[in-house]
Amino acid sequence: MSETASTALIVELESAVKGGTSERRLQMLRQVTDLFLSDADRLNENQIGVFDDVLVRLTEQMEARALAQLSTTLSGSSHAPKETVRQLAYHQEVSVAAPVLSKSARLSEGDLIAIANLRGPQHLLAISSRNALSEGVTDVLLKRGDSHVSHALARNTGARFSEFGYATLVESSAKDDALAEKLGLRMDIPIKVLRELLSRAGAAVRDRLLKAAPPELRAKIQEAIQSVVEQIVAPALAPIDYTESEAMVLALNRAGKLGDQTINRFATQGEYTHIVAALSLLTSVKIEAIEPLIANPRPDGLIVACKASRLDWSTANMILRNRPHCRPLTRQELDDGREVFDTLSLSSAQRTIRFWSARGSARKADAPDTAVAISDI
């Protein structure tokens, strides 16, 4: 844009904004937008900024219908003025926000997360249809969104999920066969998540997944189904020999090295025989009192054992998140667990774990007994 044209445009803009009619402002908006799009590929960021300032001023007094048209027009431009796009994306009217929320490359991850935390289901649904979504964005969408958002994300091949994201989707799919099928057909689904999904799904869902899966995914699904079936029909596992683990953790404790750092490493490496032996030693109760807590789907008992062992929450959290043959805990379950951990005193946790051991009922480690023991002591 030449300096003369730029000056003339600014003068005309001032006139339209201050005293012009809505029709005049709309005409100006269209002229500026058309002028921008005709030169967008040749403009640098400073020049785009000039258009941005003009468009922001014009949109301040524009009706939603005109803004929706502008949003649609700018949504596909990789050079669209950033502040204009941001204002459109934050707009309360879904018709205005949706086009740029679903397509514009000029919105940052921070913008998307902020909008997802601020706006309602329709805005979240628009974000869910973007070609690419980071784990940070999908975490917020799944936390605040409804079932429509979950379905949109599950079928969006460009969406990436954190451990929390997958756990949330698996939890929701337990009562939603259609969601389970969408999630199960994702090419990028981790095998651990697929096994958990199929363990909760009915036989009809498994059959439909096998029929609908492309050849490159079918083998992965068959392997996961076989693993689930083997777990269901497998005989009781032979008792675990903890002799070596007990000797090792005893030596570490004598050397002053059996603390959070060491036990955290055990958890990340999946060395749960060492963890059982360590918790047994640190709480002064038998292996038989600790062992069932590891496999219990409810985390309450294990949280008590970690607290009684003087571990910090980050270590307890790592133990809970990496347990073998256990479904991933949801974010809400982890948040609830953190609240229990922080509220429970060390003395109460130690009395509770000794109480279970003395009663000889820790082998079952059922959640109702856990709750009674904590409240009674």
Automatic annotation (TrEMBL):
Domain of life: Bacteria
Protein name: DUF2336 domain-containing protein
